[in-house]
Amino acid sequence: MSIILETRNVSKHYGDYRALQEVSLSFREGEVVAIVGPNGAGKTTLVNLLTGLLKPTHGDVLFRGTSIAGVGPVRLAKLGMARAFQLVHIFPELTVSEAIASAVISQQNRNLDFWRNASTIEPVRQRVEEVARIFGLQNRLDWLASYLSQGEKKLLDIASAFALNPQLILLDEPTSGISTSDKRPLMDTLMDAAKKAGIKTMLLVEHDMDLVSEYSTRIIALTEGRVLADLPPKEFFADPHLAAAIVGKPPVELGA
Ligand SMILES: Nc1ncnc2c1ncn2[C@@H]1O[C@H](COP(=O)(O)OP(=O)(O)OP(=O)(O)O)[C@@H](O)[C@H]1O
Ligand SMILES: [Mg+2]
After folding, report:
1. Which residue, judged by its Cα, is nearest atom 17 of ligand 1?
2. CATH superfamily name and code, 1-80+166-256
3. For 219-222, which contacts have Cβ atoms below 8 Å and span 24 or more sequence positions?
4. Is 147 in the pocket of ligand 1 (CB under 6 A)?
5. What separation in Å is there between the alpha carbon of 117 and the centre of ligand 2?
């Protein structure tokens, strides 16, 4: 399978602080990659670099061979990549329907001024309902996003990324802020949605090692800004030192 996304010797410094150091990774179509590591390891920084939100201090990031270093989310979505965020990214003044519609429309290359009325355009409305149904938000379409529960906001953010119809999706802690018993159903929903949408490649940051072992095909462990391991789950979990290095500090779970 061909390489879809890669980093070449990427470093990211925040002032004097080296958040990522000389990371070279390539991702192939069909992989479900879990990015793991203790708090502050550089996982979100890596996702921000892979999605063109941050520019590397050194090195380059390539999507299908083209540099996307620092290109930003709009151009990225046009190229076929979408992401959801660790801290939920929604417009609280939009309804659920309007929020999903905005993603559907940006994917259709339409003018963003359309947002408010867009949810009434028939093909858009159909697509919005379809996406909402996949994520169990069909009864929330008219709700203002700000009134959703934390878990529902998370789902809306992920649904909006899926609505962009990407070839590749990156999810930064999709199950954080979700109660333990809801994590597995959310992952099943995600995997199902990806399958239905024809999205074969997924990168996700995840702290829950049970979920990582169950859903990923490859695990990349970061510590202190460097790649500690890059292995299939079976080999990763066969080495107790690796798991210990990752679980070093338990994640803080909001609303769990
Ligand atoms: N904008 C910034 N300015 C300065 N330092 C930053 C900035 N963003 C992140 N850092 C620092 O870089 C390091 C890596 O941060 P990052 O958010 O990538 O970690 P993470 O692995 O996602 O952690 P978590 O599991 O807590 O989400 C941390 O020490 C963090 O404090
Ligand atoms: Mg993070």
Report:
1. 44
2. P-loop containing nucleotide triphosphate hydrolases (3.40.50.300)
3. 219/33, 219/34, 219/36, 220/25, 220/33, 220/34, 220/35, 220/36, 221/36, 221/37, 221/245, 221/246, 222/20, 222/35, 222/36, 222/37, 222/41, 222/42, 222/43, 222/46
4. no
5. 35
